[in-house]
Amino acid sequence: MKIDAVTIFPEYFAPLQLSLLGKAQEQGLVEVGIHDLRSFSTDNHNTVDDTPYGGGAGMVMLPEIWGKALDQLMTPETDLIILTPAGKRFDQPMAAKFSQAKHLVFACGRYEGIDDRVRQHYESKNHRVHEVSIGDYVLGGGEVASLVMIEAITRLIPGVLGNPESLAEESHNEEGYLEYPNFTKPSIWRDIEVPAILLSGNHGEIAKWRAAQAQERAKKNL
Ligand code: JBQ
Description:
The protein is of the alpha/beta class. Helices cover about 35% and strands about 20% of the residues. Helix 3 links the parallel strand 5 and strand 6 (about 105-110). The longest helix is centred in the C-terminal third of the chain and has 18 residues, at about 205-220. The protein is elongated and about 70 Å long. Bound molecules: 5-fluoranyl-3,4-dihydroquinazolin-4-ol. 5-fluoranyl-3,4-dihydroquinazolin-4-ol (JBQ) binds near residues 83, 134, 138, 139 and 142.
């Protein structure tokens, strides 16, 4: 998979070199390109935004700069993801869909967002455009939201995760199961014992106990 991100803060994406995704890049499973939006600005001040037509607070990112940046990245294979609090909520099924894509471009808006004609333009050229939000809270921009999506998506690419068993187990969670509590050594820590059933070796009973615990947790976290 090829992933490109366009941002005025390329430094936000430094963590992509770490851990699982860093290794996936070394193995050639994923290729990431980070692009500085300001390098596409044409004036002496490197302007990327202006005041909104119709008035109101904040600034809107200029369509001309975004057009220059995206024209160099978009192909018929591309899914363009525009991060915006008004977008469709990102979830695990959406991550699974995007993990099958050939090329993802993340457009990270700051301030009050990107001039809507950018979305309109690429849709009119028959590109696949997705407005996505990671959740209902206020972020400064789409950079961190993109990082969240990239991690959730890339770990579903075959070969990226070291242990495919944990993927298979997770897919049950997508079907409404939440996770059960986990324990490791020692069997007693600060006077707290690991539930005896987990030391019993009875795998049928352990599975039942875990399912019940997971349900309990799901109820509590509603
Ligand atoms: C969203 F995607 C974005 C972009 C900018 C701000 C945001 N705030 C909340 N959730 O994911 C978001």
